[in-house]
Amino acid sequence: MPELGPAPVRRAVVVGINHCQDTDNIKPLAGAINDATDIHKKLTENGGFQIDQQKYFLSDDAASAESIADDQRSLLGRDELRICLVRSFGPWLSGWL
Predict the structure, then answer these.
(1) Does the predicted TM-score (pTM) go above 0.85?
(2) Where are the alpha helices (DSSP H) in the chain?
(3) Which of 7, 41, 58, 87 counts the highest number of beta carbons within 10 A?
(4) What is the pLDDT of residues 12-52, one digit of tens each?
């Protein structure tokens, strides 16, 4: 049996947006940033993820389509990438964590 290498490093980009730039068409959310904070905590504390909060935790104005795509691209070149996608549209998520 071939020898296994070290366990891959788990990384993710976590995004929470309460206030979108298009306020005429998209109503603000009350808990998206809180949900993202909870997800970040669960991934890092329980899931073994390494998520640099300054770089890969984006919220409101910092979470533009360009910055999210840039962060995803910066991780895609790494061999150890594991992707975790969680979509939240309100407070119902708290029961799932």
Answers:
(1) no
(2) 32-45, 53-56, 65-76
(3) 58
(4) 888 888 888 777 877 888 888 888 888 889 888 998 888 88
